[in-house]
């Protein structure tokens, strides 16, 4: 089944029709989504700002990540679930929305950046975890992370105000 067919099938489900047709469901889901994204980006920013040596310099990166990242993952799961619920309400249109496509691309880049950090940079953390300058590789990863997440928020906001007629498909 082609992607367009899958998108059409999704938006024809009873749940999608309820969300699209209800006066309160979509706004309620969107409210939870926005709060979850704010908490994801806020918690990631704490770690990224530490990696950039901007703040929390007296805190170990490992302590910050152990305290914050479990919450980040919880908020992220809520954001994904609510995002999927909003998506299915008009899947065929969202799938072609340029801002939506860019948001997904930036999410993928943020995920790839996180994997690179955890697989290649974090294993050497003992040498710079506290009271030492963060290595350039970790600062670059943090800068990219902040950039990607700011982009996710920006393009996520633009989704409601853009159509394929405005920008064309990716």
Automatic annotation (TrEMBL):
Transmembrane segments: 24-47, 68-88, 100-120, 140-160
Ranges of residues in domain DUF6644: 30-161
Domain of life: Bacteria
Alphabetical keyword list: Membrane, Transmembrane, Transmembrane helix
Keyword Membrane among UniProt keywords: yes
Record protein name field: DUF6644 domain-containing protein
UniProt organism field: Chelativorans sp. (strain BNC1)
Species classification: Bacteria, Pseudomonadati, Pseudomonadota, Alphaproteobacteria, Hyphomicrobiales
């Amino acid at each position: 089944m082609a992607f367009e067919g899958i998108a059409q099938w999704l938006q024809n489900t009873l749940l999608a029709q309820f969300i699209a047709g209800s006066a309160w469901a979509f706004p309620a889901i969107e409210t939870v989504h926005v709060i979850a994204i704010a908490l994801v980006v806020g918690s990631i920013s704490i770690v990224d700002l530490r990696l950039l040596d901007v703040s929390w310099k007296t805190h170990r990166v490992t302590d910050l990540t152990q305290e914050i990242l479990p919450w980040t993952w919880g908020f992220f799961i809520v954001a994904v679930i609510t995002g999927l619920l909003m998506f299915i309400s008009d899947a065929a249109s969202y799938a072609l929305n340029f801002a939506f496509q860019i948001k997904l691309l930036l999410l993928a880049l943020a995920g790839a950046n996180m994997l690179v950090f955890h697989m290649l940079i974090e294993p050497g953390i003992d040498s710079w975890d506290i009271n030492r300058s963060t290595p350039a590789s970790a600062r670059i990863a943090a800068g990219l992370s902040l950039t990607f997440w700011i982009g996710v928020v920006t393009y996520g906001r633009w989704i409601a105000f853009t159509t394929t007629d405005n920008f064309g498909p990716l």
